[in-house]
Amino acid sequence: MRYAIYGLVIVLIILHQDNWLWDDKRLIFGFMPISLLYQAGISMGAAFVWFLATKFAWPHHLEKVTQEPAAQETGETE
What we know:
Strands 1-2 form a two-stranded antiparallel ribbon. It is mainly alpha-helical and 78 residues long. It has one domain (2-74). Helix content is 68%, strand content 5%. The chain is built from three helices and two strands.
């Protein structure tokens, strides 16, 4: 799953370069430029990929390393 998330990040980086919409003057819903709507979609996609990264690719082994000294100082055991 971690490599799929890396791939999604690379896809987002590539899609963020929206050279094809710079000169497009169309308005969506009568007020929003299409390039702004495109960037809003990219931002929502980035938020979703970040959610997936924290859910499935978070390094839990590092959390255990940082929590162990704190538990030893207070005398707590698991």
